[in-house]
Amino acid sequence: MAKYIFVTGGVTSSLGKGIIAASLAKLLQARGLKVTIQKFDPYINIDPGTMNPYEHGECYVTEDGAETDLDLGHYERFLNIFTSQANNVTTGRIYQTVINKEREGAYLGKTVQVVPHITDEIKRRMLQLGQGNEYDIVITEIGGTVGDIESLPFVEAVRQLQWELPEEDTVIVHLTLIPYLKAAKELKTKPTQHSVKMLSQEGVHPDVIVCRTEKQLTPDLRRKIALFCNVKTEAVIEAMDASTIYEVPLLMMREKLDLICLKKMNMTVNEEPELTKWKGFLDKLKYPKSKVTIGLIGKYIELQDAYKSILESFIHAGAINECQVQVINVHSEFITEDNVGEKLAGLDGLLVAPGFGHRGVEGKIVAVKYAREKGLPFFGICLGMQMAVIEFARNVLGLKEAHSTEMDPDTKEPVIDLMEEQKKITAKGGTMRLGSYPCDIKEGSLAFTIYGSTTISERHRHRWEFNNKYQSQFEKAGMLASGRNPGTDLVEIIELPQHPFFIGVQYHPELKSTVENPQPIFVHFIKAAKAYADKKSDIKNPLLQSEMI
Ligand code: GLN
Predict the structure, then answer these.
(1) Which of 159, 220, 387, 424 has the most CB atoms around its CB within 10 Å?
(2) Number of CB atoms found within 10 A of residue 132's CB
(3) What is the DSSP string of 467-529?
C-alpha cells in the first residue's frame, strides 16, 4: 500500500498548488521513491475537454486519451512519467458514477446522499492509484480553495481517509498566501490563520503549511504562523516567488518540504535527492549563450495558460540549445496581407497554434504564406498544420477555394476534411480522435532527421484530417506527407523539403516534452531559428557581407 499526501489550497486560487505538488513529487522521486500525482477538480464538467480555453486554459491530453486539467502537464514535465485518466477526477465524474450505480440498483433501495455515497466514491478514487505495487507515494491535489462549497465533499473525504488510514500513511499540506502590505511594510499572516481555521472546521488539520510570499519569512513570523495554526515551526515552509517554475523543487528542498513529509510518514530514505540532470537543465536555462524570437500565432493569446504546454516545450528546447527563446504572441485575428510583414518583423521562427472554429484562421493562413515565402522556420501544430495545407493549396496549387470543412462545410476544395469515423458523432465530450497513436516516418525526410526513427508515437486531439484525395497534387508541387498512421494512412506530418525548415504535424508534440526529454521537433525548430537568426546577423554585418560576396 502506498502512502498519501494531500495538497489543499487556501486564501485564493492561482497560488501554484500544481507546481508545489509537482516539486514535492520531484524531490521524493529524486530520493528514489516511486511517486505519482493526481488532481481532483470540483467542477461539474466530466472533464475540461468541452471547456473554452479562456475558461480553463489548455486541455492536456494523456497517452490513454483522457482530456485533463493542465496541471497534469506539469506533473508529467516534472516527473518524466505518464499520467492517465485515473489521475484527473472531477465532481462531474464522481456524480456520474454514483448516479449510474443508482440506476443499476446498486444501492439496494437506500437514499443516495453526498455522505456517504459521493464521499465513498471520492475516497475510492483517491486510493485507487496507490493500491497496486506501482507507487510508494500518491500525491493528491485538491482543486479550488478551502471554504468553497464545491470542495467540501473532497475535504470531507480527506478527513475520513485521515481517520481510516494509519496516522503515518497520510500528510496534509496546505498552501496559502502571506500577502505583503506595502503601506505597512509588513507580511500579514491573518488570511492564513483564517484559512487554516476554516480547514480545521471542516475536520482536517494541516501537517505542513506552505506559504507563498514575495518577501522572506522571518523566524518570528514562522513561529507566529506555527503557533496560531498549530503546526511545528519546521513545518512552516516558505515558498518565495521564483523566476522559473523549474526552480521551485530546489527552493522546496532548501526548505526541507520533502523531509518534513517523510518524517510525518515515518519513512527514512537514505539517498540524497539525485538532481544532477535537473540542475544541469536549470544552469542552461539561466545562462543561455544565444537568443531567438519566436512568433506564436494563436487566437487565445490573451490567456497564457491556453498554450501552456507549447510555452513549456520552448523552455525545454531552449535550454538544451543553450538558447533563450523569447515568445512573441501574435493575435491571428488581426493579421492581414497588408500588415503581415510588420506584424512578423524580427522573428526567427513561426509557430502556428492549434485551435477550433473559424475565428482567426485567415490570419493564420497569411502567416504561413509569409513563413513559406520568406524561408522563415515554420512549425504548425494540429490546426496550424491544417492551415499550412490550406495555404499551400490556395497559393501553390491554385485551388483558390481550398478550405477545411470545419470552417466552410460547403467548400469546393475540401483539402482538410472530417475523419470518416467522426461523421456519425454528434456529442462533443470525449469524442475526438484522442490520445496516443503510432506514426510511420519516411526515411530521408526532415521528420526522420528530427526523430531519428521510422516509427514514433504522439498524442492527438482532433476531428479533421488531410484529405488524401489531394495527395498526388500536393506531392507533385513539393509538399511531402512524411508521416502517416500505419493503419489508416491518415497524414500525421507534412513538410516542404525545399524550405530550410517547414513542418506541420496533426498531433500535439508539446504534450510529451519534459525537462529530461525535450520534444525533438521543438529542439530542431529552435536550432533552425538559431541558424536563421545567425544568417540575419551575418547579413547585417557589412564586413561579413563583403566577405560573402
Ligand atoms: N479543429 C481542428 C480539428 O479538430 C484542429 C484541432 C486542434 O488544433 N487541436 O481537427
Answers:
(1) 387
(2) 9
(3) -GGGHHHHHHHT-EEEEE-TTT--EEEEE-TTSSSEEEESS-GGGG--SSS--HHHHHHHHHH
> 547 pLDDT exceeds 50?
no
> What's the 406 CA to ligand 1 centre distance in angstroms?
9
Residue 212 contacts by C-beta under 8 Å, 6 or more apart in sequence? 15, 16, 175, 176, 177, 178, 239, 241
Burial letters for 26-57: b for 16+ Cβ neighbours within 10 Å, e otherwise?
bbbbbbebebbbbbbbbbebbbbbbeebeebb
Cβ count near 221 (within 10 Å):
20
- Known catalytic membership, residue 382: yes
Q: How many CA atoms lie within 13 A of 8 on its CB side?
A: 30
Question: Per-residue pLDDT for 96 more than 70?
Answer: yes
Give the global pTM: 0.95
Range scoring the smallest mean pLDDT among 72-76, 144-148, 480-484:
144-148
Which of left, alpha, beta for 433 (phi over 0: left; psi -120 to 50: alpha)? Answer: beta
Of 289, 503, 478, 489, give the one whose Cα is nearest residue 378. Answer: 503
Q: Which residue has the cell 439496494?
A: 108
Q: Which residues have CB under 6 Å of ligand 1?
A: 354-356, 382-383, 406, 461-464
Rounded to an integer, what distance in angstroms lies between the CA atom of residue 515 and that of residue 77?
A: 6
Q: Which is nearest to 27 in space by CA: 179, 193, 139? A: 139
- Compute the average pLDDT of residues 37-48: 95
Rounded to whole angstroms, the Cα distance separating 327 from 350 reads: 10
User: Which residue has cell 503546526?
Assistant: 231
Q: Yes or no: say if 313 and 519 are a contact pair by the CB < 8 Å rule.
A: yes
**What does the mean pLDDT of the chain come to?**
95
Residue in this structure with the C-alpha cell 494523456, named with its chain if needed: 62
CA 413 to centroid of ligand 1, rounded, Å: 18
CB 40 within 8 A of CB 143: yes
Model confidence at 334: pLDDT above 50: yes
Question: Is 508 a known active-site residue?
Answer: yes
Cα separation, 445 vs 494, in Å, equals 10
Helices and strands of the chain, counted as H and E runs: 19, 23
Choose, from 58, 174, 510, 524, the residue flagged as catalytic: 510
Catalytic residue list contains 401 = no
Query: Could you check whether the bond before residue 116 is cis, i.e. omega within 30 degrees of 0?
Result: yes
Residue 545 scores a pLDDT above 50: no
Q: Is the pLDDT of residue 440 over 80?
A: yes
Read off the pLDDT of each residue in 59-79 and give the average, rounded to a whole number: 97
Q: β-strand 208-213 against 170-177: which pairing, if any?
A: parallel
Residue 213, pLDDT above cutoff 90: yes
Nearest residue to 500 via CA among 376, 330, 342: 376
